[in-house]
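Listing S7. Sequence submitted for prediction.
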Amino acid sequence: MVDRGSSSEIFIPDLCGIRAVFVLVIIGELLAVMLTLTRAGIDGSALDELALLSWYVQSVGLTAAAALCVSRAWLKRLPEASIAMLSYLLVLLVAAVVAEVVWSGVNSTFSNWGLITLEHRDFLVRTIGVSAIVAALTLRYFYIQFHWQQRIASEARARLQALQARIRPHFLFNCMNTIASLTRIDPARAERAVEDLAELFRASLSEAHNLVTLADELALARRYLEIESLRLGPRLAITWRTDGLPLATKLPQLTLQPLLENAIYHGIEPLTLGGTITIESRLSASEVEIIISNPVNAERGHHVGNHLAQDNVRQRLSAHFGSAGRLLVEAASERYEVRVQWPLDSAQATWPRAS
Protein backbone atom coordinates (compact mmCIF):
# COMPACT_ATOMS: atom_id res chain seq x y z
CA MET A 1 0.00 0.00 0.00
CA VAL A 2 1.11 3.53 -0.65
CA ASP A 3 0.81 6.74 1.25
CA ARG A 4 -2.04 8.68 -0.24
CA GLY A 5 -1.13 11.92 1.47
CA SER A 6 -3.75 14.57 0.83
CA SER A 7 -5.40 12.87 -2.14
CA SER A 8 -9.11 13.50 -2.53
CA GLU A 9 -9.82 9.87 -3.44
CA ILE A 10 -9.64 6.83 -1.16
CA PHE A 11 -10.73 3.26 -1.64
CA ILE A 12 -13.65 3.69 0.77
CA PRO A 13 -16.53 4.81 -1.48
CA ASP A 14 -19.02 7.48 -0.52
CA LEU A 15 -21.55 5.49 1.47
CA CYS A 16 -23.93 8.44 1.95
CA GLY A 17 -25.48 8.24 -1.52
CA ILE A 18 -28.82 6.64 -2.28
CA ARG A 19 -27.26 4.06 -4.59
CA ALA A 20 -24.72 2.99 -1.96
CA VAL A 21 -27.44 2.69 0.69
CA PHE A 22 -29.58 0.62 -1.65
CA VAL A 23 -26.68 -1.77 -2.34
CA LEU A 24 -25.97 -2.08 1.40
CA VAL A 25 -29.62 -2.88 2.11
CA ILE A 26 -29.62 -5.61 -0.54
CA ILE A 27 -26.37 -7.11 0.77
CA GLY A 28 -27.68 -6.99 4.33
CA GLU A 29 -30.91 -8.69 3.33
CA LEU A 30 -29.04 -11.46 1.54
CA LEU A 31 -26.91 -11.96 4.65
CA ALA A 32 -30.07 -12.11 6.79
CA VAL A 33 -31.57 -14.75 4.49
CA MET A 34 -28.39 -16.82 4.66
CA LEU A 35 -28.26 -16.63 8.47
CA THR A 36 -31.95 -17.52 8.69
CA LEU A 37 -31.52 -20.61 6.53
CA THR A 38 -28.51 -21.62 8.61
CA ARG A 39 -30.25 -21.18 11.98
CA ALA A 40 -33.92 -21.97 11.42
CA GLY A 41 -34.04 -23.75 8.10
CA ILE A 42 -37.34 -23.67 6.24
CA ASP A 43 -40.20 -24.07 8.70
CA GLY A 44 -42.98 -22.08 10.29
CA SER A 45 -40.62 -19.91 12.32
CA ALA A 46 -38.41 -18.96 9.37
CA LEU A 47 -40.30 -15.76 8.52
CA ASP A 48 -40.23 -14.54 12.09
CA GLU A 49 -36.53 -15.33 12.29
CA LEU A 50 -35.89 -13.57 8.99
CA ALA A 51 -37.74 -10.45 10.11
CA LEU A 52 -35.72 -10.17 13.31
CA LEU A 53 -32.40 -10.89 11.63
CA SER A 54 -33.16 -8.45 8.79
CA TRP A 55 -33.88 -5.68 11.26
CA TYR A 56 -30.74 -6.44 13.25
CA VAL A 57 -28.41 -6.86 10.24
CA GLN A 58 -29.71 -3.67 8.65
CA SER A 59 -29.18 -1.81 11.94
CA VAL A 60 -25.56 -2.90 12.11
CA GLY A 61 -24.84 -2.41 8.41
CA LEU A 62 -26.43 1.01 7.97
CA THR A 63 -24.96 2.34 11.21
CA ALA A 64 -21.49 1.17 10.17
CA ALA A 65 -21.99 2.78 6.74
CA ALA A 66 -23.03 6.04 8.38
CA ALA A 67 -19.92 5.96 10.59
CA LEU A 68 -17.66 5.39 7.58
CA CYS A 69 -19.46 8.14 5.67
CA VAL A 70 -18.98 10.67 8.47
CA SER A 71 -15.32 9.72 9.00
CA ARG A 72 -14.41 9.58 5.29
CA ALA A 73 -13.25 13.20 5.12
CA TRP A 74 -10.90 12.59 8.03
CA LEU A 75 -9.68 9.26 6.67
CA LYS A 76 -8.61 10.94 3.41
CA ARG A 77 -5.67 12.53 5.20
CA LEU A 78 -4.22 9.19 6.29
CA PRO A 79 -2.01 6.60 4.56
CA GLU A 80 -3.90 3.80 2.85
CA ALA A 81 -2.81 1.15 5.38
CA SER A 82 -4.14 3.30 8.22
CA ILE A 83 -7.40 3.86 6.32
CA ALA A 84 -7.92 0.10 5.98
CA MET A 85 -7.10 -0.66 9.63
CA LEU A 86 -9.13 2.16 11.13
CA SER A 87 -12.12 1.49 8.87
CA TYR A 88 -12.10 -2.16 9.90
CA LEU A 89 -11.86 -1.33 13.60
CA LEU A 90 -14.59 1.29 13.23
CA VAL A 91 -16.99 -1.27 11.75
CA LEU A 92 -16.26 -3.72 14.58
CA LEU A 93 -16.76 -0.97 17.17
CA VAL A 94 -20.09 0.00 15.63
CA ALA A 95 -21.16 -3.66 15.57
CA ALA A 96 -20.29 -4.02 19.26
CA VAL A 97 -22.13 -0.82 20.22
CA VAL A 98 -25.25 -1.77 18.24
CA ALA A 99 -25.18 -5.25 19.77
CA GLU A 100 -25.05 -3.78 23.27
CA VAL A 101 -27.82 -1.30 22.55
CA VAL A 102 -30.05 -3.98 21.03
CA TRP A 103 -29.37 -6.42 23.86
CA SER A 104 -30.13 -3.86 26.53
CA GLY A 105 -33.17 -2.45 24.73
CA VAL A 106 -34.74 -5.77 23.77
CA ASN A 107 -34.18 -7.39 27.15
CA SER A 108 -35.61 -4.45 29.06
CA THR A 109 -38.59 -3.87 26.78
CA PHE A 110 -39.50 -7.34 25.50
CA SER A 111 -38.11 -9.55 28.24
CA ASN A 112 -41.20 -11.79 28.27
CA TRP A 113 -41.20 -12.33 24.52
CA GLY A 114 -37.96 -14.30 24.31
CA LEU A 115 -36.78 -12.55 21.17
CA ILE A 116 -33.10 -13.13 21.98
CA THR A 117 -32.42 -16.70 23.06
CA LEU A 118 -28.62 -16.33 23.28
CA GLU A 119 -26.58 -15.42 26.29
CA HIS A 120 -25.20 -11.88 26.39
CA ARG A 121 -21.62 -12.93 25.72
CA ASP A 122 -22.61 -15.35 22.95
CA PHE A 123 -24.79 -12.69 21.29
CA LEU A 124 -21.96 -10.14 21.36
CA VAL A 125 -19.30 -12.57 20.10
CA ARG A 126 -21.47 -13.77 17.23
CA THR A 127 -22.32 -10.24 16.17
CA ILE A 128 -18.70 -9.12 16.17
CA GLY A 129 -17.56 -12.36 14.50
CA VAL A 130 -20.01 -12.09 11.60
CA SER A 131 -19.30 -8.37 11.28
CA ALA A 132 -15.56 -9.05 11.18
CA ILE A 133 -15.92 -11.50 8.29
CA VAL A 134 -18.34 -9.34 6.29
CA ALA A 135 -16.30 -6.17 6.91
CA ALA A 136 -13.07 -7.86 5.83
CA LEU A 137 -14.62 -9.12 2.61
CA THR A 138 -16.33 -5.80 1.87
CA LEU A 139 -13.28 -3.64 2.52
CA ARG A 140 -11.15 -5.99 0.45
CA TYR A 141 -13.66 -5.68 -2.39
CA PHE A 142 -13.61 -1.86 -2.10
CA TYR A 143 -9.80 -1.89 -2.18
CA ILE A 144 -9.52 -4.15 -5.24
CA GLN A 145 -12.31 -2.31 -7.09
CA PHE A 146 -10.77 1.10 -6.40
CA HIS A 147 -7.31 0.15 -7.62
CA TRP A 148 -8.72 -1.68 -10.63
CA GLN A 149 -10.59 1.50 -11.62
CA GLN A 150 -7.42 3.51 -11.07
CA ARG A 151 -5.46 1.20 -13.33
CA ILE A 152 -8.12 1.35 -16.02
CA ALA A 153 -8.17 5.15 -15.77
CA SER A 154 -4.39 5.34 -15.96
CA GLU A 155 -4.26 3.06 -19.00
CA ALA A 156 -7.06 5.02 -20.69
CA ARG A 157 -5.29 8.33 -20.09
CA ALA A 158 -1.98 6.91 -21.31
CA ARG A 159 -3.67 5.64 -24.48
CA LEU A 160 -5.32 8.99 -25.10
CA GLN A 161 -2.05 10.80 -24.46
CA ALA A 162 -0.32 8.52 -26.96
CA LEU A 163 -3.06 9.12 -29.51
CA GLN A 164 -2.86 12.88 -29.12
CA ALA A 165 0.95 12.80 -29.19
CA ARG A 166 0.70 11.38 -32.70
CA ILE A 167 -1.18 14.50 -33.85
CA ARG A 168 1.81 16.42 -35.15
CA PRO A 169 0.65 18.51 -38.09
CA HIS A 170 2.14 17.40 -41.39
CA PHE A 171 2.05 20.99 -42.54
CA LEU A 172 4.87 22.03 -40.16
CA PHE A 173 7.63 22.37 -42.76
CA ASN A 174 5.34 23.94 -45.37
CA CYS A 175 4.15 26.38 -42.73
CA MET A 176 7.68 27.31 -41.72
CA ASN A 177 8.56 27.93 -45.37
CA THR A 178 5.47 30.10 -45.74
CA ILE A 179 6.39 32.10 -42.65
CA ALA A 180 9.95 32.50 -43.89
CA SER A 181 8.73 33.85 -47.23
CA LEU A 182 6.41 36.31 -45.49
CA THR A 183 9.01 37.60 -43.05
CA ARG A 184 10.37 40.21 -45.46
CA ILE A 185 7.33 41.08 -47.53
CA ASP A 186 4.61 41.00 -44.84
CA PRO A 187 6.03 40.79 -41.29
CA ALA A 188 2.60 41.29 -39.70
CA ARG A 189 1.11 38.26 -41.43
CA ALA A 190 4.22 36.23 -40.64
CA GLU A 191 3.85 37.12 -36.97
CA ARG A 192 0.20 36.06 -36.96
CA ALA A 193 1.14 32.78 -38.62
CA VAL A 194 3.76 32.11 -35.94
CA GLU A 195 1.17 32.80 -33.24
CA ASP A 196 -1.34 30.47 -34.90
CA LEU A 197 1.27 27.73 -35.23
CA ALA A 198 2.29 28.14 -31.58
CA GLU A 199 -1.36 27.82 -30.50
CA LEU A 200 -1.79 24.63 -32.50
CA PHE A 201 1.26 23.02 -30.96
CA ARG A 202 0.23 24.16 -27.50
CA ALA A 203 -3.05 22.33 -28.04
CA SER A 204 -1.28 19.21 -29.32
CA LEU A 205 0.87 19.09 -26.17
CA SER A 206 -1.95 19.64 -23.68
CA GLU A 207 -3.49 16.96 -21.49
CA ALA A 208 -5.20 14.42 -23.72
CA HIS A 209 -8.09 13.72 -21.34
CA ASN A 210 -9.18 17.37 -21.26
CA LEU A 211 -12.36 18.32 -23.03
CA VAL A 212 -12.58 21.78 -24.58
CA THR A 213 -15.56 23.83 -25.59
CA LEU A 214 -16.75 23.72 -29.15
CA ALA A 215 -16.01 27.45 -29.36
CA ASP A 216 -12.33 26.81 -28.56
CA GLU A 217 -12.13 23.90 -30.98
CA LEU A 218 -13.63 25.95 -33.81
CA ALA A 219 -11.24 28.82 -33.05
CA LEU A 220 -8.32 26.40 -33.25
CA ALA A 221 -9.61 25.06 -36.57
CA ARG A 222 -9.81 28.61 -37.94
CA ARG A 223 -6.20 29.26 -36.90
CA TYR A 224 -5.11 26.17 -38.78
CA LEU A 225 -7.05 27.15 -41.89
CA GLU A 226 -5.60 30.65 -41.78
CA ILE A 227 -2.09 29.17 -41.87
CA GLU A 228 -2.96 26.93 -44.80
CA SER A 229 -4.59 29.85 -46.61
CA LEU A 230 -1.24 31.66 -46.54
CA ARG A 231 0.33 28.71 -48.33
CA LEU A 232 -2.43 27.79 -50.78
CA GLY A 233 -3.80 31.25 -51.45
CA PRO A 234 -6.90 31.35 -53.69
CA ARG A 235 -6.75 27.59 -54.23
CA LEU A 236 -8.27 27.12 -50.77
CA ALA A 237 -11.81 28.36 -50.10
CA ILE A 238 -13.67 27.74 -46.85
CA THR A 239 -17.41 27.73 -46.31
CA TRP A 240 -18.66 27.83 -42.72
CA ARG A 241 -22.23 26.81 -41.89
CA THR A 242 -22.05 26.48 -38.14
CA ASP A 243 -24.52 29.08 -36.90
CA GLY A 244 -26.69 28.11 -33.97
CA LEU A 245 -24.30 25.59 -32.46
CA PRO A 246 -24.15 25.24 -28.65
CA LEU A 247 -20.62 26.61 -28.32
CA ALA A 248 -20.39 25.61 -24.65
CA THR A 249 -20.72 21.90 -25.40
CA LYS A 250 -17.44 20.01 -25.06
CA LEU A 251 -15.43 17.56 -27.15
CA PRO A 252 -11.84 16.25 -27.20
CA GLN A 253 -9.26 18.84 -28.19
CA LEU A 254 -7.87 18.56 -31.73
CA THR A 255 -10.87 16.71 -33.08
CA LEU A 256 -11.44 18.91 -36.13
CA GLN A 257 -7.90 19.97 -37.09
CA PRO A 258 -6.66 16.50 -38.17
CA LEU A 259 -9.77 16.07 -40.32
CA LEU A 260 -9.30 19.48 -41.93
CA GLU A 261 -5.66 18.59 -42.56
CA ASN A 262 -6.78 15.42 -44.34
CA ALA A 263 -9.29 17.40 -46.38
CA ILE A 264 -6.55 19.76 -47.59
CA TYR A 265 -3.89 17.12 -48.19
CA HIS A 266 -6.10 14.59 -49.99
CA GLY A 267 -8.72 16.93 -51.44
CA ILE A 268 -7.43 20.45 -52.17
CA GLU A 269 -3.72 20.01 -52.89
CA PRO A 270 -4.11 17.51 -55.79
CA LEU A 271 -6.53 19.85 -57.59
CA THR A 272 -4.90 22.38 -59.92
CA LEU A 273 -7.52 25.00 -59.20
CA GLY A 274 -8.05 23.95 -55.62
CA GLY A 275 -11.51 23.77 -54.20
CA THR A 276 -13.83 24.51 -51.31
CA ILE A 277 -13.89 22.83 -47.91
CA THR A 278 -17.30 23.02 -46.27
CA ILE A 279 -17.76 22.87 -42.52
CA GLU A 280 -21.40 22.60 -41.54
CA SER A 281 -23.32 21.50 -38.49
CA ARG A 282 -26.49 19.73 -37.53
CA LEU A 283 -28.11 19.82 -34.12
CA SER A 284 -30.69 17.48 -32.62
CA ALA A 285 -32.18 17.20 -29.16
CA SER A 286 -29.41 14.90 -27.98
CA GLU A 287 -26.54 15.16 -30.44
CA VAL A 288 -24.18 17.57 -32.16
CA GLU A 289 -22.88 16.75 -35.63
CA ILE A 290 -20.20 18.54 -37.64
CA ILE A 291 -19.68 17.61 -41.28
CA ILE A 292 -16.42 18.35 -43.08
CA SER A 293 -16.54 17.82 -46.84
CA ASN A 294 -14.03 18.43 -49.61
CA PRO A 295 -13.74 17.79 -53.37
CA VAL A 296 -11.64 14.86 -54.54
CA ASN A 297 -9.88 13.94 -57.75
CA ALA A 298 -9.25 10.22 -57.76
CA GLU A 299 -6.87 10.42 -60.71
CA ARG A 300 -4.58 13.07 -59.25
CA GLY A 301 -5.07 12.52 -55.53
CA HIS A 302 -2.35 11.70 -53.05
CA HIS A 303 -1.97 8.13 -51.86
CA VAL A 304 -4.98 6.82 -49.98
CA GLY A 305 -3.10 6.72 -46.69
CA ASN A 306 -3.67 4.57 -43.61
CA HIS A 307 -6.52 6.64 -42.11
CA LEU A 308 -4.43 7.25 -38.99
CA ALA A 309 -5.97 10.67 -38.30
CA GLN A 310 -9.52 9.37 -38.66
CA ASP A 311 -8.85 6.32 -36.46
CA ASN A 312 -7.18 8.60 -33.94
CA VAL A 313 -10.16 10.92 -33.69
CA ARG A 314 -12.60 7.99 -33.68
CA GLN A 315 -10.80 6.32 -30.76
CA ARG A 316 -10.65 9.52 -28.71
CA LEU A 317 -14.36 10.19 -29.26
CA SER A 318 -15.12 6.64 -28.19
CA ALA A 319 -12.88 6.92 -25.12
CA HIS A 320 -14.71 10.04 -23.92
CA PHE A 321 -18.30 9.38 -25.00
CA GLY A 322 -18.53 5.63 -25.58
CA SER A 323 -20.87 4.60 -28.38
CA ALA A 324 -22.34 8.13 -28.47
CA GLY A 325 -19.10 9.51 -29.94
CA ARG A 326 -18.75 8.55 -33.60
CA LEU A 327 -16.84 9.41 -36.75
CA LEU A 328 -18.52 8.41 -40.01
CA VAL A 329 -17.15 8.64 -43.54
CA GLU A 330 -19.06 8.96 -46.81
CA ALA A 331 -16.95 8.83 -49.96
CA ALA A 332 -18.37 9.64 -53.40
CA SER A 333 -16.69 10.01 -56.77
CA GLU A 334 -16.27 13.78 -56.48
CA ARG A 335 -16.85 14.55 -52.81
CA TYR A 336 -15.52 13.19 -49.54
CA GLU A 337 -17.43 13.75 -46.31
CA VAL A 338 -16.54 13.11 -42.67
CA ARG A 339 -19.16 13.35 -39.92
CA VAL A 340 -18.23 13.88 -36.27
CA GLN A 341 -20.99 13.15 -33.77
CA TRP A 342 -21.03 13.42 -29.98
CA PRO A 343 -23.73 13.85 -27.28
CA LEU A 344 -25.11 17.33 -26.80
CA ASP A 345 -24.89 17.21 -23.02
CA SER A 346 -21.17 16.54 -22.79
CA ALA A 347 -21.29 17.10 -19.05
CA GLN A 348 -22.70 13.56 -18.86
CA ALA A 349 -19.62 12.10 -20.55
CA THR A 350 -17.65 10.03 -18.10
CA TRP A 351 -13.95 10.08 -17.54
CA PRO A 352 -12.33 7.65 -15.12
CA ARG A 353 -10.88 9.58 -12.24
CA ALA A 354 -7.62 8.71 -10.63
CA SER A 355 -5.46 10.19 -7.97
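Caption to Listing S7: primary sequence and predicted C-alpha coordinates for the chain studied. DSSP finds nine helices and seven strands in the chain. The mean pLDDT is 80.
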